[in-house]
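Quick one:
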Amino acid sequence: MPVESLPIRDSSIHVRLLQQYLMLLKKYPILTKSVTSAILTALGNLLSQILEANKKVKDGNPVKEIDTAGTTRYAIYGLFVTGPVSHYFYQLMEVWMPSTDPYCIVKRLLLDRLIFAPGFLLLFYFVMNILEAKGWLDFQKKMKSSYWTALKMNWKVWTPFQFININFVPVQFRVLFANVVALFWYAYLASVRK
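Output:
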């Protein structure tokens, strides 16, 4: 029995959105990954604010309004840093450590966890400090108070996800996969940086 494909307009909204995303990913890979990163990073910040507000309500403390400036900073970071940097990192990883290398699984994970993760977290702290219009002393204070804690948490949380991502997820979907995990990671970072 032959299988008929449905025209795009007759398929569900989910299928149409996926098809549109795949088309944009193929036509404009960096821009698509950057915009996706901006949206999911901003949502991670919003999630952090909502979770913090819920905790305050349970404790009987007053709740502040949503910090739209903070959410905007996270969106800017996702758009201009997370999307492009992650895109190029995953592309270069494929060149430096092709799947034909017998030790590529271990090498990729070590590169990601020991070089990329600490550097990317440092970049996050630095860029957020600039976007918050804070000075060098504030940056040093944040680094001393929470960088090591955040890096250890990064290693605990991200290592299994990155093992899957860099070894089994097709390269064009790695930024998206990481962004979905990062939705919750940025919620954590927003809370730990306060």
